[in-house]
Amino acid sequence: MTEIEIGGSKRGRIAYSFDDIALVPTRRTRNPEDVSTTWKIDAYEFNFPIMAAPMDSVVSPEVAINYGKLGGLAVLDLEGLWTRYEDPKAEFKKIISAKPESVTEVLQQIYAQAIKPELIKERIKEIKSAGVIAAAALSPRTVVQHSKAVIEAGIDIFMIRGTTVSAEHVAKEEESLNLKKFIYELEVPVIVGGCVSQQAGLHLMRTGAAGVLVGFGGGAAHTTSDVLGIRVPMATAVADVAAARTEYLDESGGRYVHVIADGSVGKSGDISKAIAMGADAVMMGSGLARSTTAPGNGKHWGSEAIHKDLPRGQVVDLGVVGTLEQILFGPSTSSQGALNMVGALKKAMATTGYSDLKELQRIEVVINAAKA
Questions:
Q1: How far apart are CA 251 and CA 276, in angstroms?
Q2: Cα separation, 231 vs 225, whole angstroms
Q3: Fewer CB within 10 Å, N- or C-terminus of the chain?
Q4: Which residues 6+ apart lie within 8 Å of 252 measured at CB?
Q5: Which residues lie closer than 8 Å to 185 by C-beta, 6 or more apart?
Q6: Domain assignments of the chain as residue spans, ordered by start
């Protein structure tokens, strides 16, 4: 572990982002059609390891259904507009048309509307009735309040997602969330996060989670580093939590917990790099927010942007690049890594000689010399 002296009283570890690393081909290559991008978590199998992030600008019930039919897993934000308004189209229009200098205030006003438990049930049942796997997310502070509605609706995969999630969320004014007890009492797989260190990742794995999110979420739309001063480059964070997975695998006698990169995954190349660092799957927000059917119509924001006291995000204008099918499967008309994400992952695996995602985790990587 390499540390450098920052000053007389502090040392720091060198950390790397996805932009700082690159994959190294082996002695063999393959045809892209001969590799497998299949990802399986618990009893559920998906055609590709790209989850659609629980962000209002990315996932609506309709998008979740379409994404599931394409072979992937989309996660609905149960604290978003779809559980606050029966029909939030007017609210989306207000956000999309808001001027940059007033958009944060607009977000705060719109999201001040209370979450309705009956809408939580309605949205989950809508997704399930279409015959796809229903996944949805709550933050740690709302899980105790709204989990009953989620379970009664028949959720398939439950996600507890926040900027930073600990094994026990403590609050003086609310009932505390004991993750280990909560997950033990559920009968569905739970994915929790984010975390960015080996120790935090190990603690979350010990709660019984099926998957752990690495990163702070939000990606291109969050300003956590500017507001709170918190940031860990994702290549290092993923590798650290992957090390925790190996440690927990031995500790638990063979229980495998999935590591999911949740942040800084905006281009197709970021997907293969995340898996190379040890991730089993990735969570994508900005890349999918650019589809023609994304609720934000090319505008992108996360839950961090709506906080009533301390917003840590913004609305970014990414533009629209193509249909959801084009973004995932092509054909691509761009050389910037914005289209044919699954095809690019297959090409990366084929070029480097690996036949499946678990094999790709063992690939050699190099570091940009300027960053070393």
A1: 24
A2: 5
A3: N
A4: 205
A5: none
A6: 3-367
State how far the Cα of 334 lies from the Cα of 355, in Å rounded to an integer. 26
| Residue 17: other Cβ atoms inside 10 A | 18
Q: Which ranges constitute the DSSP H helices of the chain?
A: 61-69, 89-97, 103-110, 117-129, 140-152, 179-185, 198-205, 224-228, 234-251, 268-276, 324-329, 341-352, 357-360
Which H/E stretch holds residue 1?
A: none
Give the model confidence (pLDDT) of 169-193 as tens digits: 444 445 567 888 889 988 899 999 9
Pairing of strands 211-214, 258-262: parallel
List C-alpha distances in Å: 64 to 40, 93, 142, 260: 18, 20, 22, 19
The token pair that represents 189 in the structure block: 């797989």
Using alpha carbons only, what angle is made at residue 341 by residues 163 and 350, rounded to the nearest 5 degrees? Answer: 120
Q: What is the rounded distance in angstroms from the CA atom of residue 58 to the CA atom of residue 297?
A: 9
CA–CA dist 311, 285 (Å, integer) = 18
Q: Which two tokens stand for residue 185?
A: 């009492």
The pTM of the full predicted model, rounded to 2 decimals, is 0.93
- What are the CA-CA distances from residue 372 to residues 178, 230, 234, 329 (Å)? 40, 22, 16, 35
Domain 3-367: homologous superfamily in CATH: Aldolase class I (3.20.20.70)
First to last CA, the chain: 13
Nearest-angstrom CA–CA distance, 86 and 170: 32
pLDDT, mean over the chain = 91
Query: Do residues 337 and 344 touch, judged by C-beta distance below 8 A?
Result: yes
pLDDT of residue 219: 59
* Contact predicate 96/299, CB 8 Å: yes
Report how far apart, in Å, the C-alpha atoms of 170 and of each of 14, 121, 167, 178, 209 are. 31, 27, 10, 8, 19
Packing angle between helix 234-251 and helix 268-276, nearest 10 degrees? 40
Span 114-165, pLDDT tens digits: 999 999 999 999 999 999 999 999 998 899 899 999 999 999 999 999 866 6
